[in-house]
Amino acid sequence: MQSIIASLLLTASLSAGVAPQIPAKETSEVAQQVMPNASSWQSDAEANADKAAELEKKLAERNQEIERLKKQLSSSKVNTAPSIKTEQTGAKTPWRTGEFTAYYPPTNSSEHSMQGNGITAQGDNLHKSQTCEGYQIVAAPPEIPFNTKLEIEVNGAVMRAIVRDRGGAIKDSKFDIALSDKSSATNFGRQLGKWRIIE
């Protein structure tokens, strides 16, 4: 009963803004009731403070990681821009194996060495020259666009070529290289080699 009265007095004093006047005996009893819980509350508060500190530390580390990744992403975008440009202007592709033959402009109407009577699909006159822009003219499969520049290696010799022609038998990885005459084409024959796009 006395503890109830003490509690009521304490509540009334607090609401009135007056410091409570608790008798010494009552204070002793309250202290005895609070003491066992006080150490538990203190240890809980310390544990919670440790958890909060640990969480703040983890949050700070994550924020640093996010900033690092943002910087990395930003710098990689800057670094990859030139390579995209290179691809658009024609980066080299890996080497691929291919089969290579040769053809030549006919010297008379009885020779059927090529369609078009010595004129390529792109209008080059092979009677005058078998090169275009300094590159050897080749007939390539339709998947490779006209004016694509190639590097061809056959028998250890490397030539630079440009796609300016097509042919009925020219498909997959088969190419026909324009040469000046029948003798050169016959000597070249049919050979295996490799090729890649350079531009």
Topology (elements, then pairings):
Blueprint: H1 2-16, H2 24-89, E1 96-103, E2 131-132, E3 135-139, E4 149-154, E5 157-165, E6 174-178, H3 182-188, E7 191-197
Parallel strand pairs: 1-6, 3-5
Antiparallel strand pairs: 1-7, 2-3, 3-6, 4-5, 4-7
Structural summary, described in words:
This protein is an alpha+beta fold. It folds into two domains: 2-87; 96-197, RlpA-like domain (Barwin-like endoglucanases, Beta Barrel), CATH 2.40.40. The chain has three helices and seven strands; from the N terminus they run ααββββββαβ. It has helices at 2-16, 24-89, 182-188; strands at 96-103, 131-132, 135-139, 149-154, 157-165, 174-178, 191-197. A hairpin with a 2-residue loop joins strand 2 and strand 3.
Structure described in brief:
By secondary structure, this protein is of the alpha+beta class.
Features:
single chain, Barwin-like endoglucanases, alpha+beta, rod-shaped, 7 strands, 21% strand, 199 residues, six-stranded mixed β-barrel, 2 domains
Shape: rod-shaped
Q: Helical residue percent? A: 40-55%
Total of domains: 2
Mean pLDDT across residues:
79
Report the C-alpha radius of gyration, rounded: 44 Å
CATH architecture of the largest domain: Beta Barrel
CATH homologous superfamily annotation of the largest domain: RlpA-like domain
Strand order of the largest sheet: 1-6-3-5-4-7
Percent strand: 15-25%
Helix/strand order:
HHEEEEEEHE
| Low-pLDDT residue spans | 78-89
CATH class value of the largest domain: Mainly Beta
CATH fold-level label of the largest domain: Barwin-like endoglucanases
Structural category is alpha+beta
Number of strands: 7
Q: What is the count of DSSP helices, taking H or I runs of 4+ residues?
A: 3
